[in-house]
Structure formats: C-alpha cells, structure tokens
Design brief:
The complex is a heterotrimer of chains A (609), B (452) and C (472). Chain A contains 25 helices and two strands. A two-stranded antiparallel ribbon of chain A has the order 1-2. In chain B, helix 2 runs parallel beside helix 4, helix 4 packs parallel to helix 9 and helix 10 runs parallel beside helix 16. The longest helix of chain B is centred in the first third of the chain and has 32 residues. Chain C is mainly α. Chain C has one domain. Chain C contains 22 helices and two strands. In chain C, helix 3 runs antiparallel to helix 21. The chains are: A mainly alpha (609), B mainly alpha (452), C mainly alpha (472).
Chain lengths: 609, 452, 472
C-alpha cells in the first residue's frame, strides 16, 4: 500500500477548520463559517474517495511514543468508514447551515463540528491503538462540547459532563486493554498485532482479557448496557449533533473497534458470546425504552441504542462485515430520522414533545416523506436499506444460535412498532400545538433528500445470495475475516420471508395501534417505566454516583483530619517540650542539685564503665 | 605574640581608663582586637610556643582564637555603654579565651577559664536590675561550682596519670572519673545537658550583647579545650558519656525551645542544642576543623540573631516585639530571617555547611544513631526558628500597604523605638553578607581551619 | 552557558530584591534569557548521557563539589521550569520582590535538576525552600502562617533525615566523593541499604507528594497568593519523582527493590485518592492541589514500575504537568482576579462574557484530564504501560483516577464557565492572550509530537533499568 501524505491531510483539513473558526470565526459573517466547514469536510471526503480508488494508503511517523508509531491506514474498512463519516458528515454540515441560522454560537458550532470530523477520521484511520485512542477521546471531547453547546442551561451542561464521564469508564477499559496488549506483544500497531496473532501458534492466555477490556471501551462509546445511560441525555445538543455524532458516526465507533480488532475476537469465543449477549440485551432495552418517550429526539435516541445493540450482536456472532453493513445503512436512515425530527422541531419553534405535534403530514409535506422513509427503513420494511442489513444480522445470529435469533426477531417486531409510534404521533392526526409550522429552507431539505435516497437504496450493496453482494467481499479484504457460515439459500430465504412478515406486521400494527387515543392500563404502566428508562439513572445514582460523591466529601474531610493528626503529633512534641522546659524552674538550689547529680553521674559512668 | 598583645593592652587600658574618655578606650579595645585578628592572619599556620610548651599556638589554637576574637569584637561593636570598664572586660575575656584555646595543660586551661569567666560574671550583671543580678549570681555560683568540678577532675587526672597534659592516655576508675569530670566542667561552659541549667536564665537575664558573647566566643574556647581533653585514644573512656550528653543535649535543647515565648531564652535553648551538634564532631579524629568551622557558622548565625535582638532591646525581647520587624526595619528583619534560616541549617546559608560537616564527621566515626537523632531534632528545631521567622514577616504595622490582618494588629506604642547604632549596623551587615557568601562558597572558610 | 542559565535568575532576583522598582522588566529579561539559554542547551545537546559537565571543589576536604551536568531528563525539566517561570513572570502583576523570590527559586529548581553531586543536589533541594517560604510568608493569605509551618516542617522532617542517608551512601559504600559517578561506582550493599533508601524515600515522598505525606500541599496552595505565581513555583518544586529517578533508585537499587511493593501501593492509592478528594474541593486551589497529587501518583506509579516506558512516562508526565498545572494555577489566578475569589460556586456562565478565557481553561483542564493530543496524555499513557507490567491490579486501582479526573475537572469547569451566567467578566487582554497562546502551544506540541522529548528521556531510563537489574 502506498505511503501517502494525503492521508494525514484528510484529518488536517477539518482540524484546520477547527483552528480557523475557533480563532477567527467571530469575525466571519454567517453563513461563511458553515460554508467553510462544510467545504473542508467535503475535501476530506473527496480525498478519501481518491485514496480508496487508488487501493488504499498508509502513512506513519516512527517512534511517536517510544516503540509506538503514529500510523494511519486507509484500507477498505477504514475507507468505508471515511465515506460514512465525511459523506454523511458533509450532508449534516450543510443541513446545520440552515438549522443553526442566527444562533449566537454559529461559528463556534462549526468549529466544534469540524473538530469532531477530524477526530472521527483519526479514529477510523488509525493503525495503532494509541492513535485510535486520540480520536476516541477526541470525539468524546467534541461530543462533550456539542451536547453542552447551549451550556447556559444547567441540564445541557450536566448531560455533556455525564456523557464524558461515562465514556471515561469505557476509556479506562480501552487504556488497560492497550496495556495488556503491550505487555504481551510489545506492540500496539493494529496491523502489526494482527500479523503477530495470526502467525502465532499458541495464543497468550491474556488475549481474552485484552479483548474484554477493549470491549469495555466499545461499550462506553456505543452506549451498550450497562453504560447506555449517557446517550439519551446527549440529545440535549442541537439536532444536527444528534444526527452526526449520536447516531451516524461516533456511537458506531465501538462497532468499528470490534471489527478492526476482529483478529482478536475470533480467537476469544467466550468474549464474543458476551459481546453478542450484551448486544442483544441492549437491543431489547433500547427498543422497550423507546415506547415511553415523549421527546421526539429521545425516541430516536433509544432506537439508536437498540440498533447499536444489533450491531454488537452481529459482531459478537462473528459477522463483522454485517455489523459494518448495518453501520452503513443505519447511518443513512438514522441521520435522516434525526434531521427530519430537527426539521419538525425547527418548524415548531423548538417544540420537542410529540404530544404537542401531529398532523405534520399536511404542514411539512417534504419532511413528512423524509420521516416516513426513515421510519420504514428503521422498521425494516422489505427492500429498504434497513431491511437488508437487519436481515443479514438475523441470519448470522440464527447460524450462531437459535435463542439469539429469537431475541433479535422480537426486537425487530418492537422496532417496527415504535418506529410507527414515532411516525404516527408526529405526522398523522391533527396538529395539537399552537405554533405555526413552516417547511424548512432548501439548505435543510436537500441533505434530507440525499439521505432519504440513501436510506432507500444503500441496502442493495449487501443483497443475499444469489444476488451479488458487494460489501462483504470488499470488507473481508481489509479484515481478512469471512462471515463464519454461509447458510444454504433455502434457509436464508426462509429467514428473509419470516423477517419481512414480522416487520410488515409490526409496521401495520403500529400504524393501527398508535392512531388510537386510549390504551390498556398495562400499557400505560409499561409506558411509565419506559419513560424513566426502567429506572437506570435512579439505580446508578443511588448505587454508585451518590455513594461515590459522599465518599469524596468524606475523604475530603478525612484529609483535613490527616493534617490535623500530624498537627496533633506536633502539638504533642510541643507539650513534651513545654514540660521539659518546666524543669528550668529558676531556683538556684535545684540547679546546683542538678549539676551535682550530673557530675556524680559522670563519676558513676567512669566507675561502672 | 597574641598573648602579649591582648594581655598588655588589657592592662594598659585598665590604667589608661582613668585618664582617657570611655569612647577612646572603646576605640582602643576595638583596635586591639582588630590587630589581634590581623596578627592571627599574618602568622596563620605558624606554630609557636612559650613557657616550655605550656602556651602553645597551633592550628587548633589559631582557629578557635579567631572565632573567639570575632565574637568579642562583635560584642564590642554591638554593645553600648559609656563605662570604660565595659570594653575592657571584653578584652580580658578575649585574653582568657585565647589562653584556654592555646594550651594543652589542664591547669593553664583552668587559668584561662577563670580569666574569661570573671569578666563575664560581671558583664552579666551590667544592667543593674533584679533580672541582671539574678542572672549574674546564678552564673557566678554555678560557674564556681563547675570550676570546682574542673579542679577536682584535674586532681583525679593527675593522680591517675601523673600528668597535667590533656589527652594523656590512662586507665582505671580514677582516670575515667577524672576525665569525665573535666569533660563535665567544659560541658558546663558550652551548656550541654545536663550541665545546661544556667543557660536559659542567664542568657535571658543578661544584657543582650553579653548573651551574644556568651553564646559565641565562650563556646569556642571551651570546645578547643574539649578537643584537647577528649583524645581519640581515650574514646572508650569518654565515648559513651559523650554520646549520652549529645543525645540529651539535642533532645532537651530543641524540645525545650518549643515552649518559649521570649526570644533570648529561645536562643539560649537553641545554643544548648547547637552545642550538642558541635560535639558530634568530637567523635572523629579529623573533627577539629569541623568543630571550628561549625563554631564560626554558629557565631555568624546566633551572633546575628542576638545582634538584631540587641538592637531591639538589651532586656527581654518577647515575641510580640518582633512582629512585623521586616516592615519596620527591613535590614534587621532580613538579617534576623537569614540568621534563623542559617541556624535551622538550611542551605545555601553557612549554617548548613557547619551542620553538614559535623554530621559528616560523626558519620565517618560511625555514629549514625546520633546523626539520625540530631537530624530529627533539627526538624523540631526548624519549627521554633520558623516561628520567629513568621513573627518577623507577620502582620504589617498599620499604614503599611498589604493585606489587612486587623485581628492581631500591632500596638505600635508598646513596641520599643528602634534605632541602630552605626557600628552595630555595620557588624550586622557584614555578618549578613558573610552568612550568605560563605554559604555559597563554604570552601573559603573551611580552608582556614584545616590549614597548618 | 549552563552556569549563566543557572545563576542568572538568582542574580537578577537579588538585584530585584534590592531594587524592586525594576520590577517586571528585569524579571522578564532574566527569565527570558534563561529560557532561551535552556533552549539553546537543548538544541546543542548531543542526545545521550550527561553533557555540559563541570566540576570544581566546593568544600574540598569533605569531598563536596560544585558539579553540574545535564542529561536528557534534566534538560527537559529545565525547559519546563524556565518556560513556566517566564510565562508566570509575564502574566502576573505582582510586587517586584515577589518576582525576585520567584527568580531566586528558579535557580534552586534548575540546580536540583543539574546537580551531579549529591550534596550539591541536597543544597539546591533545600535552598529552594527558603524563597518558597518567604513568598508564602510575605504574600500569603490569612492562614498562611499555619500553612507555612506545615509546609516547612513536612519538607524538613523529610529532608533532614535524608542527610543521614546522604552521608551513609557515601561512607558505607566507600566512595571518595559525593559525585554521582563516584557513588555509582561504589554501590552500597548489605543490610543497611533498606534503611538508607528509606531516608531518601521519605524526603522525596514528601516532595512528590505521595499519600500520606501529601498533607501539607492543600493548605500550601490554598494560602498562597491569589495570583497563582507562588503556586506555579510550588508546582515546579514537586521534584520527588525526578529525585527518585536521579538519586535514590540508581544509588540504591537493592533498597528500591525492598520497598518497591510499598511504593507502588502508595503511588496507586495516591492517584485515586487525590482525584477522589479533589471532587469534593470547593475552591480552585484545593481542587488543583489534589488533582496535582493524583497526577504525581500516576507518575510515581510509572516510575516505580522500574520499566523503561514507565519511567519515561513518569518524567514526561512530571515535566508536562509542571507546565499545565502551573498554567492552571495561573489561570485560576486570572479567574480569581476577575471574580474576586477562588471559590468554585462563586460565579457561573463565564464562558459567555469571556470566551477566550474559557477556551484557555478548557485546554488546561483537558490536559489535566489526560486527553490524548494534549500534553497530559503521553506521560500518563506510558506510565500506564509500564505500571501494568509491574502490577496489573494496582494499575487498575491507580488509573481509575482517570475517571475521577474527568469528574472533578469537568464539574469544576462547568460550574464556573457553564450554566447560568451570574456575572460578566472581562475577557483576556493582550498580555493574557500571549500567555494563553504559549500555554496552548506548549500543550499541543507535547501532546502531538511527544517524540521530541521522549527520545531525550529514553537513554537515561534505559540506564536505570539496567541498574535496577532489568535487562530486557
């Protein structure tokens, strides 16, 4: 693979944008910052395309840290990710030009956005784990800044901080995972480790530990159970942020990490099973939590959690290509869902509660189309992109084990139901609010047109046999890992039909049910629990956060006590001195006695020496 | 010769004193001391002896005489008295110290001891008030007692060895007891525990300038004698006893100082502790230069401290009087601050090197236990030096810029008015500069003590 | 050149002390020249071993030399120290004598890193205490006297017993002098080694600082002048990690081996404990003090791992944290100047009226959190890699601090800069912008291209690994 200076340039372009807009953005007139930022991301995208067409590229600085190079690699896997990140990222940048119109922090927003793209590109292009970690934490920083973009609201600032801290738990796992790999293999280069592991006969007994720790990192970044609590709160940021960071790109970094490290996980079946189980649990949890939400964005957020669970399931059962395929399709339909949500919010002057929406089909005809396409793709309507990738996951998990398949199928049903709930509540029925809805400007509509197109069609790159499947061989070239089994065609098509039926049934049922106004009591109660995300936050607060906080105060006090203890010792020495000084009575007769005694002692010493 | 110079001038001035004004007498005394120091410098490293070896000027004698003379000189520069006897007593004391440092004969030592002790008894009572008399009387009575001990020790020593020569080898109970008694008497003069009883009361009660003299010059003479008396060959006789003394001295000196609230008394305890540190070097055969150097550094440190206190008051100096000194009299504040850091043994001040050298000698002699004890107690010592230092920099007097610390504001009226005489000022400035310079290049001063 | 760089600040400090009217101009010239000289020394450094060696007897018969020399590690630290002093002098508007003390302290600090004679090292190590104490005494806050005693007594209680070890290491080992090379050639063996090492360890632990000997630090910072100048200088004075690396560990490898377990445990505990306690801090100074303690715990963990990467990381973290922690203290001083106090709950929402200030703060806070790409990361990461080899569990314990760090740092930052705006504050003026730009540049340079400096540290670390008996 050729050395190419273009590779670091890909990252530098948006980084430059960050620096420029950060320093001089205030002097620029709207929409110049947005245009510059979008242009730079487009530049990165084009560079990525160029290098991908050239068959990949690599670039490295030796001994960036002792024994650890700063190395970048663009192969098919990272190339595809660059396409997603910079491509979808570009569309969302353009959308934001309209969405952030007249915001006081207009240029600041685009500075952060460019920072995010730069860091995300670092993450995916890295060929060594520490470099990936730069991007990994860098996107975390960008996410922190963007969630808390409207920082004067305490809630937003709190959410941002929560996201960062929860992610740090995962990051500790990532760090320790690297330490294990370093101790065992003496290298942290991804391709180097891959060669070493593939070449070695007996694998270190610590490999599962390394895998597990890296997986912990992925759990944090991709909001898997049990570290899922930050993602719904992250919706506090402006909607383009949710679309770009908390749907299309950053949260899929965990999946990317697993796929990149597939060479580790194929050797650690136990860890892989755990990944699959965590993925499934997350998928179920996210889906169930989506039902109770009233915030238009939180519904989509929980669907993201759920879909990320799907991807982990795929990675866990060894179908890394399929997981990435779902990342791809998900990027389109989820970005679309968020951006159409954003358009609705924009149209209603900031309203986010679906109880005060409805009837948008009439008011926002184009956005309605976008929302419908997104919801159907999410719900897995046959032939839309989400259908193909979800079906591939179902097939892979069927091959791995029937219980997993069953769980995944159930989630598919739930997904179809709640995606309809979202669609119906927002677009159908009568408008329940007081604002005067107006359709978005073209700068916001056009990105959605393109995304909708993608959500409709992108699934066709991964068709089941006998049709040509483009994406799997393309990715396998980079990972070197094929999907474990190729099921026979009959079984595959049976599964496809089953999932098509389930999805279609779910969508229809959802469309029916959620147009109602009354619900059975059990559903209301379920909805209450779901609204509170099944009390995960409360649980964490009472079990972890609050005890840790009070412990901090306790230790703070104890630390003062420690000092007081030292001072107490000092005082004791002092009072010892005081009593010694009291020997000095001032009475001459005592002095004489003392002197004579001492002299006598001297003589005694002489005698009994 | 030094002996004639000091002795002659002292006698002449005693007679002249009735004729010339006190001021002239003081000038002449100062001149004598300067001449003495100059003479020392010129004949440095040249041994001399008189009276069949009873008076012997060797490198040890020269080094310690230098310290003693400097101490007396400073005392004269600092003190203010319109009586002509005052500088004279200083001269006599210098003579006695020189004699004590310059003889290997126990009887001559005793002679020297008495020669310098008597003027000191008188000087202690110079301030004619109750505290002064009390101090003088205590000093005199206890001093007399210690002289008796000294004489008794000499007698035993002579009985055991048939010699008055210090450092004669010997054995047996008689010898041991004699040697230890001599040591005890000298330990009294340097104020080592448990012969230290007099020091706090006397230092506090005497005029501050006299305390300066007692703390510095006297120690030099007595340590010279100790070095001669405690010969290495007899270490098995005096070793354990001295270890005990040192241990007690550094402990009680430093701990006792913690509870004080009057600066002179504090410095008395500090001087006790320093005697303990100095004595550490006695264990080593090569310890003499270290002892000399230590005494020089101690002269600079504690002398400076006393000199500053003397500028504040010849009487008691309660802590409150030091408050904010650095804002009222920057020179005195800085000097006292540096002196305290030097006494605490903080580099780069010269006090550190003194401490370092005596610890090094003790370590060479394998006395690690004592070294550690001494070091631990110097950490304790740091506390009370810092306490003084913190007073010096604390609380600006009203009107000065800076933070408002009204809670403990200063009662300006109750503080003595500070006026510094030019000679005392001069001495303080010189000593401050030396304190720093010698700290940076300790080799210059140390070389003085190993020459010859 | 090395002597000029070493003593120029002292001379300037003395002059400034006598003529405080010269003030900032003189201090700037002196500290600027020192920085340039350090830079020049770094550029001309051959890349390995001790360079610029010079020795002349200081106290001849006692075997004490004025002996100085610089290797990669000390050059790196020189650069950090001289940069911080320059920036601090540039930024702070304080009385001339305050600056004078800072300059005097700079000489002491540079000397600590340059000394190649153990006694000379001790002299610098202790001498630096004096200006630091005077700064606290003259310019400190209300409770400064208490803080002063605490600080001084902790330091002295540690370093005075160390003097016994200094003597022992020479005389028990039979070395002719206190020169590093002589001492290394006459290693000390036998039963006393543990005790001798302990003597060093106590002094250096106080100055690292590690739990439970860190207790002096919070009040020291809390009571120092609100400008942060004295805190910055105090941060530079936390040289324990270097002292272990240069003296205690190479001279007494056997003693280190005896105590390694305990030291690792202390380091790991300190890291977590400091970060945890910091979360409960109510003002900038204490927050940063505990945060700094935590960082030094991580550095010590790397150092005590006895591995090459761990030690490189420890020294890197030491130098980097000198810069950013000092920067944070000065930054806190800037915030305090604008809002009239250093309490964290005093103001909110400053980011609105003072965006540049908030950006500077964010950079500094993120460096402290150890965000990769900024200067806190490379050291922390290498220390982690090394520490894991020595003890996985303690590494887990200690490095849990990275979570806590995010918690305390961001919580503090948020409460001052985010949330509801309670008052407006002036944004950075030109002088402060220069400071901010230099700070950010230094953090980015160290964070993005650490190779520049890790390569300086590697040879020395490699040498120590050999001495410790590791040979991989």
């Amino acid at each position: 693979m050729p050395e190419s200076i273009l590779l670091p340039l890909t990252i530098t372009l948006p980084a430059l944008g960050f620096a420029l807009l950060g320093l001089f953005g205030k002097q620029l007139k709207e929409p110049l910052p947005g245009v510059i930022a979008s242009g730079l991301v487009l530049g990165s995208f084009l560079l990525g395309v160029l290098m991908l067409l050239q068959g990949g590229a690599r670039w490295q600085v030796e001994n960036w840290l002792p024994g650890i190079p700063f190395s970048l690699l663009l192969d098919n896997l990272s190339g595809l990710m660059v396409m997603i990140v910079a491509g979808v990222g570009f569309l969302i940048h353009v959308y934001a030009i309209g969405y952030m119109h007249k915001d006081a922090g207009y240029s600041r927003f685009f500075a952060y956005f460019n920072l995010f793209i730069a860091m995300m590109l670092t993450l995916v292009l890295a060929d060594s784990y520490p470099v990936m970690f730069i991007g990994w934490e860098g996107v975390g920083l960008a996410s922190y800044l963007l969630i808390g973009f409207w920082y004067h609201d305490r809630v937003n600032a709190d959410s941002a901080r929560k996201a960062f801290i929860v992610n740090r738990i995962g990051d500790l796992g990532f760090l320790l995972g690297m330490a294990v790999l370093w101790a065992v293999f003496g290298s942290l280069s991804v391709s180097g480790l891959k060669q070493q592991i593939e070449a070695s006969q007996a694998l270190s007994s610590l490999l599962p530990l390394a895998g597990l720790l890296l997986f912990l990192g992925a759990i944090g970044k991709s909001a898997q159970v049990p570290l899922m609590v930050w993602l719904p709160d992250a919706m506090a940021g402006p909607t383009p942020v949710s679309a770009l960071i908390h749907a299309a790109t950053m949260v899929t970094a965990g999946v990317y990490l697993l796929a990149r490290s597939g060479f580790i996980y194929v050797n650690t079946p136990d860890v892989s099973l755990l990944i699959a189980l965590v993925g499934l649990a997350t998928a179920v949890y996210g889906a169930l939590s989506a039902f109770g939400q009233w915030d238009i964005k939180r519904i989509v957020a929980y669907s993201t959690v759920s879909q990320l669970g799907y991807m982990f399931l795929a990675a866990g059962v060894g179908a890394y290509g399929v997981a990435i395929f779902h990342v791809l399709t998900h990027a389109f339909f989820k970005a679309l869902l968020f951006l159409s949500s954003g358009s609705v919010i924009h149209a209603l002057g900031g309203e986010q509660d679906i109880r005060r929406m409805g009837g948008m089909k009439k008011h926002l005809p184009q956005t309605h189309i976008h929302g419908l396409v997104g919801a159907l793709a999410l719900g897995g309507l046959p032939l839309l992109s989400g259908f193909w990738s979800k079906d591939a996951i179902l097939t892979a998990s069927f091959e791995y084990g029937f219980p997993l398949y069953l769980g995944a199928l159930a989630v598919a049903l739930l997904t179809a139901l709640y995606s309809m709930r979202w669609y119906v509540s927002v677009f159908l029925g009568q408008y329940r609010g007081q604002a005067h809805p107006h359709e978005s400007p073209p700068v916001m509509l056009w990105p959605n047109h393109l995304l909708a197109l993608g959500a409709l069609l992108i699934g066709f790159v991964g068709l089941p046999q006998p049709f040509p499947n483009l994406i799997q061989p393309f990715l396998a070239k980079a990972t070197g890992l094929e999907a474990p089994h190729q099921p026979n065609m009959g079984l595959e098509w049976t599964l496809i039909v089953v999932s098509a039926v389930v999805a279609a049934a779910g969508l229809y049922l959802g469309w029916q049910i959620f147009q109602r106004t009354t619900f059975p009591r059990w559903f209301i109660r379920f909805q209450h629990a779901s609204l509170r995300s099944f009390y995960a936050d409360e649980l964490y607060n009472s079990l972890l956060v609050n005890p840790l906080k009070s412990m901090a105060s306790l230790l703070f006090g104890a630390d003062g006590g420690l000092l007081a203890g030292y001072q107490g010792v000092a005082r004791m020495v002092g009072s010892l001195g005081a009593s010694l000084a009291r020997l000095e009575t001032g009475y001459l007769r005592l002095y004489v006695a003392g002197l004579l005694l001492a002299a006598a002692l001297m003589i005694l010493l002489g005698v009994f020496r | 010769m030094m002996l004639y110079l000091l002795g002659g001038m002292a006698t002449v001035l005693t007679l002249l004193g009735f004729l010339v004004p006190a001021r002239v007498s003081r000038m002449l005394s100062l001149a004598t001391l300067v001449a003495g120091i100059a003479y020392l410098a010129r004949t440095w490293g040249e041994p001399a002896s008189l009276f069949g070896g009873l008076y012997r000027v060797d490198s040890l004698a020269q080094g310690f005489t230098l310290v003693a003379l400097l101490g007396v000189l400073w005392f004269l520069l600092a003190a203010r008295s319109d009586k002509f006897e005052f500088p004279l007593f200083g001269l006599y004391a210098a003579l006695g110290m020189h004699v004590m440092a310059s003889s290997n004969n126990l009887v001559v030592m005793l002679l020297g001891l008495e020669v310098f002790s008597l003027p000191l008894y008188l000087l202690a009572t110079w301030r004619r008030d109750e505290a002064g008399f009390e101090a003088g009387l205590k000093y005199f009575l206890l001093g007399a007692l210690s002289s008796a001990v000294f004489i008794y020790g000499i007698a035993l020593h002579f009985g055991a060895t048939g010699s008055f020569e210090a450092g004669t080898q010997g054995q047996g109970i008689l010898f041991a007891s004699g040697l230890l008694l001599v040591m005890a008497a000298l330990a009294f003069k340097v104020a080592m525990v448990p012969f230290h009883w007099w020091a706090p009361d006397v230092y506090q009660g005497s005029p501050t300038s006299v305390s300066l003299l007692m703390a510095t010059a006297v120690k030099a003479a007595a340590f010279a004698a100790l070095l001669r008396v405690l010969a290495q060959e007899n270490m098995d006789v005096w070793g354990l006893a001295l270890m005990l003394l040192v241990a007690l001295t550094v402990l009680i000196g430093n701990l006792g100082a913690l509870a004080q609230n009057e600066a002179k008394r504090l410095l008395a305890y500090s001087s006790i502790a320093h005697a303990g540190y100095t004595a550490l070097a006695l264990f080593s055969p090569t310890g003499a230069p270290a002892v000399g150097f230590y005494l020089l550094t101690y002269l600079l440190g504690t002398g400076l401290a006393f000199a500053v206190l003397q500028q504040i008051s010849e009487r008691d100096v309660p802590y409150a009087a030091l408050r904010g000194l650095i804002y009222r009299k920057p020179l005195l504040g800085v000097a006292l601050g540096l002196a305290l850091f030097s006494l605490a043994g903080l580099p780069p001040l010269v006090g550190f090197w003194g401490k370092y050298l005596v610890f090094l000698e003790a370590a060479k002699a394998g006395q690690y236990g004592l070294v550690v004890l001494a070091l631990l107690t110097s950490a304790v010592a740091a506390y009370y030096y810092l306490k003084l230092f913190s007073l010096v920099v604390m609380q600006k007097p009203a009107g000065a810029p800076g933070q408002d610390l009204a809670a403990t504001s200063l009662d300006e009226a109750r503080l003595p008015r500070l006026s510094t005489s030019s000679s005392a000022r001069f001495a303080i400035v010189v000593a401050t500069i030396l304190l720093v310079i010698l700290g940076l290049v300790p080799g210059w001063a140390f070389r003085v003590f190993i020459a010859g | 050149m090395i002597h000029l760089a070493l003593f120029l600040p002292l001379v300037a400090g003395v002059v400034l002390m006598l003529a405080p009217g010269l003030g900032r101009a003189l201090a700037l010239v002196a500290s600027g020249a020192t920085f340039v000289l350090s830079l020049a020394l770094l550029v001309r450094y051959p890349g390995e071993g001790l360079a610029y060696n010079f020795q002349t007897p200081l106290l001849e018969p006692a075997g004490v030399y004025y002996a100085v020399g610089l290797d990669g590690a000390s050059l790196f630290l020189w650069l950090a120290v001289s940069l911080v002093v320059l920036l601090a002098v540039w930024l702070c508007r304080v009385p001339g004598r305050f600056l004078a003390l800072a300059l005097m302290m700079e000489t002491g600090l540079l000397g600590i890193f340059a000394a190649t004679d153990l006694v000379l090292f001790y002299v610098f190590f202790e001498a630096t205490l004096i200006p630091s104490l005077v700064m606290l005494g003259l310019f400190g806050g209300k409770e400064r006297m208490k803080a002063l005693y605490t600080f001084a007594l902790f330091t002295l209680a540690g370093s005075l017993p160390m003097l016994a070890s200094v003597l022992a290491v020479r005389y028990l080992g039979g070395s002719p002098s206190f020169l590093l090379s002589d001492l290394l050639a006459h290693p000390l063996e036998g039963s006393a080694v543990g005790l001798v090492f302990l003597g060093f360890a106590l002094a250096f632990t106080v100055k690292t600082p590690l739990f439970p000997l860190h207790a002096w630090l919070p009040s020291f910072h809390a009571e120092n002048h609100s400008s942060g100048l004295a805190d910055a200088m105090g941060t530079l004075y936390k040289v324990g990690v270097f002292a272990f690396f240069r003296w205690a560990m190479p001279l007494l490898p056997q003693g280190f081996a005896e105590l390694q377990g305990l030291l690792l445990l202390l380091a790991a505990f300190t890291a977590l404990y400091g970060a945890w306690v910091a979360f409960a801090a109510k003002d900038w100074k204490r927050l940063l003090a505990y945060g700094g303690v935590s960082h030094m715990g991580l550095a010590a963990l790397g150092l005590f791992s006895g591995t090459q990467e761990g030690m490189v990381g420890a020294l890197f973290l030491l130098a980097a944290s000198m810069v950013y922690t000092s920067g944070l203290f000065l930054f806190a001083g800037m915030v305090g100047e604008r809002t009239g106090g250093l309490e964290l709950n005093r103001v909110g929402g400053l980011a609105k009226s003072a965006p540049a200030l908030s950006v500077l703060g964010l950079f500094l806070v993120m460096a402290m959190v150890g965000l990769p790409g900024l200067s806190g990361f490379p050291g922390e990461f290498l220390a982690l890699l090394g520490a894991y080899k020595a003890s996985p569990w303690l590494t887990l314990l200690g490095f849990s601090a990275v979570i806590a760090a995010a918690a305390y740092a961001l919580t503090a930052y948020q409460s001052v800069f985010h949330q509801h705006e309670t008052r407006a504050a002036r944004d950075l003026e030109a002088r402060e912008q220069v400071f901010a730009a230099s700070m950010v540049a230094s953090m980015l340079l160290l964070g993005l291209y650490p190779r520049l400096f890790t390569e300086l540290l590697e040879p020395a670390a490699k040498q120590l690994v050999l001495l410790l008996g590791g040979g991989s």
